[in-house]
Amino acid sequence: MPKAIIIGAGIAGIASAIRLAVKGFEVEVFESNAYPGGKLSELNVDGFRFDAGPSLFTMPQYVDELFILAGKNPSDYFSYQKLSSICNYFYEDGTRLTAWADKDKLAKEIAEKTADSRQSVLEFLKKSEEIYEITHHVFLEKSLHKVRTYLSTATLNSLLKIGKIDSMRSMNEANESYFIDPRTTQLFNRYATYNGSDPYRAPATLNVIPHLEQHFGAYFPKGGMNMITASLVKLAEELGVRFCYNSKVEEIVLDAKEVRGIRVQGQFLEANLVISNMDVWHTYRNLLKNEPFSSRIMNQERSSSALIFYWGINKAFTELDLHNIFFSEHYEAEFKAIWKEKKIFNDPTVYINISSKYNASDAPAGCENWFVMINVPANAGQDWDKLISEARENIINKISRNLNVNLRDHIICEDILDPRSIESRTSSYQGSLYGTSSNSRFAAFLRHPNFSSSIKDLYFVGGSVHPGGGIPLALLSAKITSELI
């Protein structure tokens, strides 16, 4: 039986383990932390449970697919419910807007509360669908670094329509052409942050993202986001995958440009192939110490990072739902601060996730578990302690102002995650959440491939390689890689 070793038990590493086990490989996964999931893990503080990282669940079919591939019924392991309302938006002028899952209801909501028409929203969503239909089976589901991808009929059809994916202007420029109300433009500009990018620079091709959310829906996993990790680990173990925790890999061992195995805790372990779910930057710098690497890829602009406050709140807020956004009044200035000045804007857009709205046991009775996040620059040596202290005050003031409450009186416990701790816990270079940014129209082609062109039997999965970051794309990276093997 051929042996595969996977470095890192992030969601892409776990999915890769399942796919290879189904193919007949003996699989071992080595994880430096004491728990699986990477960013997709959980945190418990004083009776409150928090999903530590990703909080939005879309395209559940990519999770279900892994159970089906293994001949299992997904609902025996994992269940989820579709959200009727995806997010509540709060603007500083007092506007409150609900992003309904039903596109007609969303269009009606925007038409009633902004200067934009129902038809303009529906036309925008139609364009989002068109971009998806042109790009998904090429840019998301196949390797962009293999000649055979470009010889398929589907790829050729997509290339003939390449002018329709709106890559020549920025997301903001495109959105301003669809909408006359800045509030609507801001709402749809926000989707650039789903892969850590800047809507004022990223190509309008990223307007594909609203289709993924509106057409396929947004969901809440029963038990919280961490159940995605827990259910897939259970499946992997049933397939014979062995997880080794607290096991930091020290080196990928090569012989004449061919993988021989890994070195972990001073011990050599042989393998027929190795898949790295570690950030590609750290893979090259720390595990392939004597191997040349592409400076072009290694020096690419990183995606944004996050500052997260996990707050236990001793009050229930009926105006809040699972997903909530409090917009900055000066959106372009916020992104300028993040991307050009490498600092945190004094009026950041604040995202609040409250899983106890759907999973009551995540907080004590009468309380709520607030996952409070703002977008921040990747770590470039800033004075984070000072930035975090200032941001905390600005966030509390903003929420208090919008909800007409003194939030300080209701925070009864706290934990914090910042770019430094994101990197130390997940090996994400500079604490970037999605590997490299998508601020270039060529970003999809510039990401590191899912294989090494110079080292035989070395592969890569996860958010730092093709097709990108976020749960669905990380799962697709595992699918692409397994098809290459």
How many H/I helices? 16
Largest sheet: 7 strands, mixed
pLDDT under 50 segments (min length 5)? Answer: none
Classify the oligomer: single chain
Rounded mean pLDDT is 94
Kindly name the structural category.
Answer: alpha/beta
* Main β-sheet, spatial strand arrangement: 8-7-16-17-18-15-19
Structural Rg: 22 Å
Strand fraction equals: 15-25%
| Fraction of helical residues | 25-40%
CATH topology (level 3) name of the domain at 3-40 and 222-299 and 440-484: FAD/NAD(P)-binding domain
CATH class of the domain at 3-40 and 222-299 and 440-484: Alpha Beta
How many E strands?
20
End-to-end Cα distance: 15 Å
In one word, what is the shape? globular
Write the layout of secondary structure elements.
Layout (H helix, E strand, L loop, with lengths): L2 E5 L3 H12 L3 E5 L11 E4 L2 E4 L5 E2 L2 H9 L10 E3 L2 E6 L5 E5 L2 H11 L4 H23 L12 H8 L10 H8 L3 H8 L19 H6 L3 E4 L4 H13 L3 E3 L4 E6 L4 E6 L2 E4 L2 E4 L3 H8 L7 H4 L6 E9 L9 E4 L4 H9 L10 E4 L14 E9 L7 H20 L7 E7 L1 H8 L16 H4 L11 E3 L10 H14 L1
In short:
The chain has 485 residues and is an alpha/beta fold. The chain is 34% helix and 20% strand.
